[in-house]
Amino acid sequence: MSKTQTLPDFDWDKADNRGFGSGYSAEERNRLAELYDNTLAQVNEKEVVIGTVVGITDREIILNIGFKSDGLVPASEFRDLPDLKIGDEVEVYVENQEDPNGQLVLSRKKAKVITAWQKIQRALDEDLVIEGFVKRRTKGGLIVDIYSIEAFLPGSQIDVKPIRDFDVFVGKKMEVKVVKINYANDNVVVSHKVLIEKDLEAQRQQILNNLQKGQVLEGVIKNMTNFGVFIDLGGVDGLLHITDISWGRISHPSELLHLDQKVNVVVLDFDEDKKRISLGMKQLQAHPWDSLEETIQVGSKVKGRIVNVADYGAFLEIMPGVEGLIHVSEMSWSQHLRNPQDFLKVGDEVEAVVLTLDRNDRKMSLGIKQLTADPWSRTELVEKYAVGTKHKGVVRNLTNFGLFLELEEGIDGLVHVSDLSWTKKIKHPSDFIKVGEELEVVVLELDVENRRLALGHKQLEENPWDTFEDVFVPGSVHRSTILSKNDKLATLELPYGIEGFAALKSLQKEDGSWADVGETLEFKVLEFSKDEKRIMLSHTKTWQEKGEDRKPEKRQAAAKTPTASKEPERATLGDLDALAALKEQMEGRSAKGE
């Protein structure tokens, strides 16, 4: 027979089936709830909090943030923490206190981004130096990882000196400062140069304080341009101009120098306010003029290289730093000046004669034509260019009064505009011939002492005006064409290609109208002047005198006077053998385009 054991002091009457906790009074229940709430931390959504790892599975990390429930975070967000263990603390972002399943939603990835931007903003506000990792190069600079945010480091902000190879920084750590944040584009710009500049400022100021003209310094070439090179003197830059690199001429600094080369330079000048320093390199060497051989005197022959060609002449470099000017007038015995580039070009190796030499002022003038004899000093010149001899030459220059003809190198002659043609009135030589064309001439005058030679072209033929005097006799009638008119006279084209003139009042026709340019009519010669080469004619006279001859009194007078002339005789080319030959000669010249 079993015995029933009873529990002393247990009030079975108070026990019922109304559920767990139903035995608490309202006051007791409130007190217990208050005690429980005090054990929980205050958690707000959309903020970063500290969580403690309380569990680790293959797929999730369980975190306790002091809330009424734990949160789950995908294990993939902790790949950067391979040694994560229970009890470690990490920052997480509270996305939702309670999702539809009643679960606390956390994110470490968002926490890292928010925290990173907060650190970046703090670094900008407080001008902090932070450490980044150079991930890769990009156009114009580098991409640097700071707090898992990709920042841009411009090439100009890497160093105080130009960087030519960005790849050397990839994969390395680098200290930088944040200089700009653009939240709209999630863009961060950093600089490493500002760190170097701060270190160099004190060094730069020390250099400037101790800088003196004539001081010799060592520097490194950091940049090269067409006009010179910039040299880093240890925190401060100086300019070495191209003209101060060498005593000789160079066209570009790269002919003698290269980037990153260490060089010794001397301080030529500096502006403390603008911090500009002018440097020299050639000044560290003696001037080449000081070592010029004493054997070089006026009249000496020297050899060198043409280093520059200007409008007025060329410069011959005898040795680096020693140059002489060959004026264009000393390049040829020709009396007319030409372009120096017709004779010389840069790089030519030539010989010259020293004309003047000033060692104190370091100046020298040279000549090339002196290497050959003066053509005007030749003994056979008088015989070769005697008056009446015929020659051919090239037209070198045209002027209002004539043209200069080069018969040979150094021998020029003048053909006056009046000596170009017997029949045509030439206002300017360009109406007759062009520069560079050949012209046949005859010597009219030779003056060796004054180097003058007068030439003529029309003198190659006989003066046709001697023949014209017998053709265009006053009273003779010739068919002529009106070429042009001015206020007083009309210019006519007469037979054989010569010109005549008629007063405007003498152009009236028999019907009362007036002859115009282009018309061909009969004209009577009124006046012929061989010396002035002038023929005056009239058309009106041709019909007026015919009318007068028809009057009765005129006919009677003509019958009584045996010497009275009939209608003026018209001259024809067949009447004169000499004129026929002249016509053939002139037509031959016209066919040649003269």
Description:
This is 30S ribosomal protein S1. Belongs to the bacterial ribosomal protein bS1 family. Residues 542-556 have a biased composition (Basic and acidic residues). Residues 541-575 are annotated as: Disordered. The protein is an alpha+beta fold and 594 residues long. 16% of the residues lie in helices and 35% in strands. The model is unreliable at 553-576 and 589-594 (pLDDT under 50).
Based on DSSP secondary structure assignment, what is the total number of beta strands?
A: 30
Largest beta sheet, briefly?
Answer: 5 strands, mixed, barrel
| Rg, alpha carbons | 55 Å
Beta-strand share of residues:
35-45%
Please, how many helices? Answer: 8
Helix and strand content put the structural class at alpha+beta
Give the uncertain stretches in residue-range form. Answer: 553-576, 589-594
- CA-to-CA gap between the ends? 167 Å
Specify the helix fraction band. 10-25%
Mean pLDDT: 79
Looking across the biggest beta sheet, what order are the strands in? 1-2-3-5-4
Keywords: Ribonucleoprotein, Ribosomal protein
Protein name: 30S ribosomal protein S1
Family: Belongs to the bacterial ribosomal protein bS1 family.
GO cellular component, one term: ribosome
